[in-house]
Design goal:
Length: about 240
Amino acid sequence: MEEISWIIDIAGIPLDGTMALMTILTCVIVFCIVFFCSRNLQMKPKGKQNVLEAIVDFVKGIVSDNVTKKEVNDYHLLAFTFFMFVLVSNILGLMTKVVIFPDEVSFWKSPTADPLVTLTLAFIAIILTHYYGLKKQGAKNYFINSFMKPTAILLPIKIIEEFTNVLTLGLRLYGNLFAGEVLLTLIAKLGASSPTKFVLALPLEVIWQTFSLFIGAVQAFIFVTLMMVYMSHKIEAEH
């Protein structure tokens, strides 16, 4: 049977309780990681501070590859926030996949394994690129730079491109995470079907969950990299 989410009915409006809880949990985990690792900062970092600074420097490298050096700090925190949320969201469901089966309802999954979540993240990212483009260049210069260059003939294509950017950015993340969780669920069901199959399924589950850490990090990297590429197109004037 198909695995479904826990649905809550609020005033006649259905709410995906699984996604709501997992999104809140992701935000709490991200906050706790940053809070814990940033306590008692030292000039010579060690331990937990090293971990946080390594992530910060990694994200700063992504930003610096796409914007000018003097603008890195303007977008670094934004990129770091997106990276941490997507990374934790990815790992939360893939590395710790837990499925509870009253009527095949799942109470635990990656927020990024839901297309509404990933498309919302992508939509917010694209909207922010427009906001910062308008903020830096002004309405007239922004419109010309974003939609009228290198030629005004491309205006319809440029407009369509904004919608396709949201779809590709969101669906790429969703597809990879959804496929990973489906595979983990199938392996778990295989192991639960018989003791013999459990012996076969256990190492497969362990191997795939280990590999999921790499998958989650790569997808977070790709998401933030593409977001900053789109950002650079909006804030930098074409010549």
